[in-house]
Amino acid sequence: MLKQLCEFCGKSMGQPDVSYRMKIELYADPAPPEFTQEDLERDVKAEMEALFAQMESADAGEAEDEVYESYLFTLCGHCRGKVHHWLRERHEHLDDLGLD
């Protein structure tokens, strides 16, 4: 039988343990940026040239990760509960601040 390890605490899990999968995706916001009149009056050519120079020296993998990256974790029941409570508390805190 294949055993799994919790990637948070290292616990070995087998039958009858229940394991959980947690997927995290980080990606660039697809919404277009909002431009002000001040933005439209800037020297766009100079900014574009600087951006292109920066992109030429950038690592391709890092540049790709800034657009999208994904992680998959295996968790034991105990660590799943800890992650769940942390996420719920964080979300409720953002709700209280009106930042959700």
Number of domains: 1
Percent strand equals 15-25%
How many DSSP E strands? 4
Globular, elongated, flat, extended or rod-shaped: what is the shape?
A: elongated
Describe this structure in words.
The protein has helices spanning 37-40, 44-56, 60-67, 77-97, and strands at 4-5, 12-13, 20-27, 68-75. It has 100 residues and is an alpha+beta fold. The chain has one domain. The strands form two sheets. The chain has a two-stranded antiparallel sheet with strand order 1-2. A two-stranded antiparallel ribbon has the order 3-4. The longest helix is centred in the last third of the chain and has 21 residues, at 77-97. The protein is elongated and about 65 Å long. The termini are far apart.
Which key features would you list for this structure?
100 residues, alpha+beta, two-stranded antiparallel ribbon, two-stranded antiparallel sheet, 46% helix
List the helices and strands and how they pair.
Elements: E1 4-5, E2 12-13, E3 20-27, H1 37-40, H2 44-56, H3 60-67, E4 68-75, H4 77-97
Antiparallel strand pairs: 1-2, 3-4
Short recap of the structure:
The protein is α+β, with helices and mostly antiparallel strands and 100 residues long. It contains four helices and four strands; from the N terminus they run βββαααβα.
